[in-house]
Amino acid sequence: MHAAWRYLLFGLLVGGSAFASAADRAHWQSVDYLVDAFVEIALRSEYSPKPSTVRKWITPVNYFIVHQVADEDLHQRLIRTHFEQLAEITGLTIRPAESQAAANYLIVMTSEDLLKEDMQTYLGWRSTARREKFFRESVCLSTFSIKPKGPIFRAVVIIPVDRARARRKLVACVVEELTQVMGLANDSVKVFPSVFNDLSTDVFLSGLDSLLLKMLYDPRVKAGMDEDAVRPILQQIATEFERDDRFATAEKAAAEGGLSALSP
User: Fold this and answer.
1) Is 252 found in the same domain as 149?
2) Over the stretch 130-152, which tens digit does the pLDDT of each residue have?
3) Are 48 and 140 contained in the same domain?
4) Rounded distance, CA 232 to CA 249, Å?
């Protein structure tokens, strides 16, 4: 890798290690913890008490990057590298679209002074209260649309680059938001180590995150399944992970892929 690129990537990273300690790893390496973590992240929502059903892509992801700020090459590298890891973990086809019109997944790299307009243009957010809640609580955002039975058919990620850089969260925004619109939409302090935990310093996908993605995109887990239907299947998949020693190897495999592998 070019030395300048490695140095620039390092300068953007949030403080903290991408690797969990041995003590941290031990608690999630169990069938029951993994199943409960999946239910918490995939079937719960921080914005609604109502349980969700399984949401996932069942068609190829065709993404398009809307560049409204400088450093286009850097942003393309970050996004492409993380998508390569997501594709490897999930088995999904994730590829760039030829045009914005041909895309079902938009990533808007923007600035804070354009954010209000972008929220209206790409998300349809016209509520002042909703926008103010975002500015108080978040750095970047993502959303997806589902069909009645659970398949995701459209997603939008918006990253105000200057806002993210000021908080040293540009890489963290790319990793978390691009991953959440795979269908793991909730944030929870109950699940760790994970990029879905707002109290965590994790920047890159953890071993736990990678196993949650693998479970979601196992063919036995169908879009639209509720908790009662999916729990026995999750139990079976997690038991297979335990049998095949996936718990022991997940952290190393996650660290060797994607943006984690590019950090010095």
Assistant:
1) no
2) 677 776 778 999 999 999 888 99
3) no
4) 24
214 Cβ contact partners less than 8 Å away, ≥ 6 residues apart = 89, 90, 237, 241, 246
Which 3 state secondary structure label does DSSP give 186? coil
The confidence score (pLDDT) of residue 13 equals: 46
Same domain for 44 and 107? no
User: How do residues 20-30 score in pLDDT, each as one tens digit?
Assistant: 344 444 589 99
At 40, give phi and psi (nearest 5°): -65, -40
Q: What letter would DSSP give residue 127?
A: -
> Which residues face 70 on adjacent strands?
none
- Which domain range does residue 259 map to? 16-54+185-264
Residue from 138, 134, 139, 136 nearest 161 by CA: 139
Q: How many domains does the chain have?
A: 2
264 confidence band (pLDDT: 50, 70, 90): low
- Distance separating alpha carbons of residues 172 and 12, to the nearest angstrom: 9
Residues paired with 154 in a beta bridge: 145
How many angstroms separate the first and last alpha carbons of the chain? 10
Residue 2 lies in a domain: no
Tell me the C-alpha distance between 259 and 171, whole Å: 8
Same domain assignment for residues 50 and 60: no
